[in-house]
Every structure is written in structure tokens, then in C-alpha cells.
Amino acid sequence: MDQETYEFLQNLVNDDSLHWTTIRFMLSCILRHRTDSQLIFYMYGAANSGKSTLAKWLEYVLGPERCATTTLAKLRSRFGTFQIVNKTLVIIPDVINRFTDDFESFLKNVSRGEIITVEQKFVNAIGYRPNCNILIHGNHDIIFKDPGLQRSVIKIPCFSTPKEGKPHMLDTLINNSPEIIRWAFGCPISHIDYRTVVGLKEILNNEVEDDPVLQWCTTVLFRCHPDQGEPLGLKAENNRSTLYGNYSFWCEQNDFFPLFPSKFPHRLLHTLSSLNAPVLKRRRSGGIYLLGVSFTGNPSDKIRLVRSEPLKRFTEEISDPAKSSTDAPILF
């Protein structure tokens, strides 16, 4: 990228190396439309430091089909939530110094991919499952009270000294868009301190050694056999014996940040497909059925996975399908 753009980004994070990497990750996550964990990025600091300029550049690059800029008031209005439908990024600019409990609950539901009610004028209200990241910026640090929401928020302090005479900076960013995108996509995972910026490591992982779901499948799930060792899910005597519980515990033991339960079934189905597992996916009223998945390598072992309703408890059962006349159900 050119010198002026580089200095703008450096000044935005006040030359802090961790925040420099974090903002690079943020751009990579947003520009790649990676919504696996639906993160909330919160940029805060002095006015005129470049936060809104960067947000406007993202809005320009993504376009109205992918990005929506809105306000807290609009999101809590009757028809306001319709703006986020089919968007991968929602920008909320110039927030005040605190959020209401009601709005924190709304943000938490969005970040977890929970179904929310959206309504359009003269059209019946529908349930919609958000699939987007959120970028918020303001002048003050906000303390999020909800512990569950805190795990989805990545804060980027912008304590740079405002520079005057830069009204053309947005045009400069637009002209240098290819270089900025190339720089963002080159974000090295090894430079991210995920203990400080929770969950960053998981989003960009595409390799077996870094993808927690893929590694869990190859090291735990595929080695599980109902008649050997400690099987997953038999009677679900404790949380570790469920599929998600075992995966979550494995992540803790291996320093990974686990996906939320609502995200885990979709990622597991996608991972099994990427491994060329003999999968036949069928949608029915009871959930998503996955037929023909062999966990033991034996072609006669066929296990059916069923995604449960959102309000049901995450439990699973695994039996030996080779000894049964019917496929064994596994509930997430």
C-alpha cells in the first residue's frame, strides 16, 4: 500500500503492534465475509482519528448488498432489524458511552446466530437467523456487562492524535483498495495473540493443524467406536460425552476457542463434507439429517446425524449401526 494509507492505519492504532495486527485481522475477516463466529468489532477513541473513515471505506468496498449502516434506535424500532437481512457486515457508528441491557441482549442474539424477528412494512413478520459481523465505533470505551457478549467483542482502541487537513483520506483509501485488501488477506495467524483477542485464531483457520473442528474430527470423532474405548454420547452421562460437550472440552485442553453451540452443527456438517465423507444431506421438519457417515472407517457403519430444534438440550446418542436395523440418531 502507499505511504499515506500506511501512515493512516498506523496512526489509527497509535503504532501499537497488537492493535495493528488486530485491525488487519478485522479487515481480513470482514472482506472475506467470514461469519463463522459472528464477531463484534468495537473501535473507540478520539474523534477525527479515522474510525468513521475506515468504516465508510468498508461500506464502499462491500456495497449495499453486503453492508448496512444503521443506528441503535433504528435496530430497536419495529422495522429496523430488516436492514440486516442478508448482510455480512452491520456498521453502527457514533455510539454513546453505554448500551442498554435490551440492546446487549440483541447484540448477543445476533452474534450467536439466534433467530430474531424482522418485519417489513405491509409484510408479515418473519424469523431470521443473522449471519453477519458487526462493526461499532464511538469515542468512549464501553464495558459490556453480559459475559457471553464479552466473548464475541473484539475491542480496538484508537488513541491516535487527530490530524487536521485530511478530508481526502477516504478517496485515498478507495484508490488504494486493491493494496489494502491484499494486505488484509495476508494476515498471519501466528502473529495473533488469541489470549488477548479472544477467538481470532479460529476464524482464519483453513488448515488441519489450526482448524479446531477439523482437528477434533480427525483426532477424536473418527477414532470413536461404540465398542472400544470411551464412546461419545452413550446415555450422555456427562457433558463431555455429548458431541458438542466433547468438542468444547477438547478445545479447552488444546487452547482453542470453541464455536457457539448454535454454530457447531453447521460447521461439523461442512467439515465432514470437506473430508469427502459419504454424506447425503436431507432437510426434514425434525432437523437436518446426515446419512451415510462412517466414523470408524467401516463402510457398514452408517450414522444419522439430526440437528435438534434450537430450544432442545444438546444431547447425542451413538450406537453400533452395524448391529442395528436402523440408523442411529445423533442429536446436536
TrEMBL record:
GO terms for molecular function: ATP binding. The keyword Plastid applies. Coiled coil: none annotated. It comes from Glaucocystis incrassata. Residues 4-174 form the SF3 helicase domain. The gene is orf166. Gene3D superfamilies: P-loop containing nucleotide triphosphate hydrolases. PROSITE patterns: SF3_HELICASE_1 (PS51206). The keyword Lipoprotein does not apply. This is SF3 helicase domain-containing protein. Keywords: ATP-binding, Nucleotide-binding, Plastid. InterPro entries: Helicase_SF3_DNA-vir, NrS-1_pol-like_helicase, P-loop_NTPase. Pfam families: DUF5906 (PF19263).
